[in-house]
Design goal:
Blueprint: H1 2-6, H2 11-29, H3 38-53, H4 57-63, H5 65-77, H6 79-84, H7 86-91, H8 93-117, H9 122-128, H10 135-145, H11 149-173, H12 179-201, H13 203-232
Length: about 230
């Protein structure tokens, strides 16, 4: 009976939805603590079920593929709040451009600094470098550069969860409170997961997070191969 349930084509989809709803409910009930962010809690719930049940990840991923496909449409819908905030985005054009270049370079630099100091091989550097881009972009970059795509995906998701959980508090502690700056930083450093957290703060914050996520993905595509080619010489 249990095996029949686990191998049902929609088990992974149902598990993901139920875990997400449960995590969001608990997060609100306990006063929205950062350490219990729904993304982190739901991820841990799904991992626990997979470990206890022994369901292979490949099977679970195939069962939940519908959510992955729907994500493309959700990303397209991010254009709506961007259009609403177009005036504010134009007004902050130059500061955003500077923040984009510095932030993207810093994201790549911090990913490579310790591995380089420890004498890591090129494959590991290629795996780590695109950690702050969206998962789809990061995996493609890592694959093209000879990195381990599975590890890249895990690192990207971990980066997003860390940014969503601790990012707003870190920014507030350092005096960064402008919703545009907070949003842009979350999107740039923590991609889609950070962007989802930004929309929980406000529409302006979420809109600038969307912009940061998109622009950083584009810039990362250009910077990572350049940096790796310089390191490989």
């Amino acid at each position: 009976m249990l095996e029949t349930v686990l191998l049902h084509p929609l088990f992974g989809l149902g598990l993901t939805v139920i875990a997400s709803l449960a995590a969001a409910t608990l997060w609100v009930r306990f006063g929205r603590p950062a350490i219990c962010h729904p993304v982190l809690a739901a991820t841990l719930m799904v991992i626990a079920v997979l470990v206890v049940s022994g369901l292979p990840y490949d099977v679970f991923y195939a069962q939940a593929a519908l959510l992955d496909q729907a994500l493309g449409g959700v990303i397209v819908l991010l254009a709506v709040p961007l259009c609403r905030q177009a005036r504010f985005i134009r007004e902050a054009g130059v500061p955003l451009g500077v923040a984009l270049v510095v932030g993207s370079a810093a994201a790549i630099g911090t990913a490579l600094a310790l591995p380089l100091a420890a004498g890591a091989d090129f494959a590991l550097l290629a795996t780590l470098a695109p950690k702050s881009a969206t998962a789809a972009v990061a995996v493609e970059i890592a694959q093209a550069q000879g990195g381990a795509t599975g590890m890249t995906a895990v690192i990207v998701i971990s980066t997003g969860i860390f940014g969503a959980v601790f990012g707003p508090a870190i920014l507030d502690t350092t005096g960064v409170r402008d919703p545009r700056a907070v949003g842009f930083a979350l999107g740039l450093a923590s991609h889609a997961i950070g962007t989802a957290r930004a929309f929980q703060i406000s529409e302006i914050t979420g809109s600038f997070a969307s912009l940061g996520m998109i622009l950083n993905a584009i810039l990362t595509i250009a910077l990572v191969p350049l940096c790796l080619s310089l390191l490989g010489d």
